Amino acid sequence: xxxxxxxxxxxxxxxxxxxxxxxxxxxxxxxxxxxxxxxxxxxxxxxxxxxxxxxxxxxxxxxxxxxxxxxxxxxxxxxxxxxxxxxxxxxxxxxxxxxxxxxxxxxxxxxxxxxxxxxxxxxxxxxxxxxxxxxxxxxxxxxxxxxxxxxxxxxxxxxxxxxxxxxxxxxxxxxxxxxxxxxxxxxxxxxxxxxxxxxxxxxxxxxxxxxxxxxxxxxxxxxxxxxxxxxxxxxxxxxxxxxxxxxxxxxxxxxxxxxxxxxxxxxxxxxxxxxxxxxxxxxxxxxxxxxxxxxxxxxxxxxxxxxxxxxxxxxxxxxxxxxxxxxxxxxxxxxxxxxxxxxxxxxxxxxxxxxxxxxxxxxxxxxxxxxxxxxxxxxxxxxxxxxxxxxxxxxxxxxxxxxxxxxxxxxxxxxxxxxxxxxxxxxxxxxxxxxxxxxxxxxxxxxxxxxxxxxxxxxxxxxxxxxxxxxxxxxxxxxxxxxxxxxxxxxxxxxxxxxxxxxxxxxxxxxxxxxxxxxxxxxxxxxxxxxxxxxxxxxxxxxxxxxxxxxxxxxxxxxxxxx
Length: 563
Known about the structure:
By secondary structure, the chain is mainly alpha-helical.
């Protein structure tokens, strides 16, 4: 069975290498391919199969397949002793196929098939470990993602007036409702507020799933969809303001929640949520190239961060609480080094992969003419990113190991080998992409306060963290930790979105479908129909008697008329 993992890993690595070369070739020569197959024509609606190949799509496929290749190699050791590793392999394989189907086609029907495939297989992967927590998390995941599926279906129905579902040729069609449906679909898949609660809950899945699905592929599908529709979204300023507002709220909420969380996988999930908000925000400022740059750079080091946490959890006998894990650098030095590289890249350490995208985003925001509230939210969110990264490193590096005294924590060679290529990408990929995509020479002049504002924000957070230890009000401290640890009570609000429509339909059923109109029209109509039916049966069953009675009545009437 392990041969399937090896073969698929080599196959994905080979295809990703070819995609990278072809993407660079198209980027340099500035051209793209468009292939079409007319399947059938139904009532003047053309049903076609399209494949649109440009450097954006091929670079995204390179990123997906490279991470998938390393995950398959990683699973050889991580899932080697699992009884259901065959089922796990097929689920991951079909997830990758669904992702590719969504990416390569500019047709809304193909996107819907891939979109539904992502949601369904993601649900199957979340409930892979069969327990109550996984089942509840899977239910929350598929219910919130189903909202995006419905909005995609509604957008398909709106595109029928154009005669086809190919959005490449319909770039002149601006419909506010259509664009709103696309944005809502992207919000649900990329876990933006108020649909954010499913992403931390989805950490019930195996760690390789979190590394592949919830860091680089599934959650970035929403951002990729917005990038494909950027020419329509940029025509409406109100939609862009809504995207900015929601993305800033998502960044703030995820940053605060990560600073009050102790589950290692949930901390990384909140980190992913925060970076998705950053991608959405810079996209809404009409800079989709920079959003795409941060998307592909972030996927490399974030998937490696999940893989490092998986090795640690695997060695700690499935403990995920960072309060139990300490002195990590002595037990797994290579894994700890890779985790440090991914954390530094996340923080925007100079000349790491994440530095080139995050630094350009901050410089672009400082040079643009925006509201001070946007600057404030952005600086706070960026400072929170550095804060929770340092917090996690502090717990893993300096805290005492609060685990069993008798343990056998050591490195896993095959898992470490699978992360070496991602580690190199986390260091050099940002520089390569910056040189290829943003190769124009730009000189940015920022003053001292703007350039060092993130450092000042981090120092303020450190001071606030120390002062919180001296707050004697137990109720206030408990409320603060509970409020930020529960995603601003978003877990309590999400059932309201489900309960309110159900109560509305229940009241509609009671007041209208089973109300007085039902009693008057339906029951009275049925009563008269039953009477007419009984009368007809009576006539059919007593033909001779009725004929004699009718003759007698007619005879009496005639005699009365003669008299």
